[in-house]
User: Fold this.
Amino acid sequence: MTRVAIDGSTSPDDAAAAVRAWVEEHVPVAWREAAERGGAAEIRTVRSRADYEAWYPTFGASGLVAPTWPVAYGGLDLPVALARRIDAELRPYNLGRLNPLGLNLAAPALFAHGTEEQRLRFLPKIVDNSERWCQLFSEPGAGSDLASLATRADRDGDEWVLSGQKVWTTWAHVSDWGVALARTDPGLPKRKGITYFLIDLRQPGVEVRPLRHIGGEVDFNEVFLDGARVPDAQRVGAVGDGWKVANATLSGERQMVSGSGSGGVDRIGGSGSNRLVQKVVAQGADAAAVQELMQVHSEELIRDWTNQRVRAGLRAGRSPGPESSIGKVHQGGLNQCIQLLATELLGPGAAAWERDGDEYQDDLPYEVRGMLRSRANTIEGGTTEVNKNILGERVLGLPREPDPFRDAAWKDVPRS
Assistant:
């Protein structure tokens, strides 16, 4: 496996040439030919998810997955402008980044609050997808009000013992590690008695139960912790400082889900409106439909510019800020608009499909799955209402929402 020979002194044209040479040598011929014939849609006909996962370590070893990260962490230590040029060269081949929760949730916390030992241990394996990650934050009684979480972490020598229940944990059933919040001091106010951990999910005391959602697929899970152990060396930040550390993860999550649609390796490399435009043009469109398509396409451009601003700040070393909530609020409604427009313009085929008896179907048409999945966009990653509160308080300077128990000890706060 080969790391691309590019560094911060490489000219943009030389960097592009190096990436093209790497693609020629390492990307399978069938994938490249499919990209030339018809882009992402054609690539899907010759490249299965299993194929891509098997090949992905080659991509991880190249440094191109996270080119702005330091070399020691699996990147190339490149400036943002050069990384954009590289992404432009890779885009036609639909080389989506696997392990998005590791890249976008765990990594921001490690960069902002982790130790060098933790970064060296975990970041390279996030890049090459050899260790997959999930987020153990939400609980049955702590969703929008995450700070009220009840999962406990008790100190036992050089380890912590975690017990509690998490829910809506995306991809826990295929993950090796999770970032977890647990209460370490119930005598403090709810935001001050929480600590942030990196937990090995492949251990006794961790039970994962998959949850199937409306489109039939499984990516959400319940996770039960019953005496699961975490070495103190896998604590991120100070004891009781978990809420501050979690904000880096939450901002990264909002930025991640403010991208184009619902994610997935074969959905990267083309916006939702572009895909819809291609479909509508193929079947014919009137002037009114064209106007609606251009409106959502313009909104997607605004979303992309907002996300670029957030990513530029992260690459410059700044902690994620409330601007990630702007993209989250915008994208949640935007993708729902795109999917509803698709349903309207494409007709019954975008909202109905054949089923085999009462079994769940794993291969729903793209438009059907997109329409069903989009209903979660204004809930996941923090509801639209919560994110609007963040923007109102942190950006506009409006008064905080009243909370009579804000300074009370967590153990004294009433819970239903």
Summary: The first strand starts at residue 133 and ends at 136. The two ends are 55 Å apart (CA to CA).
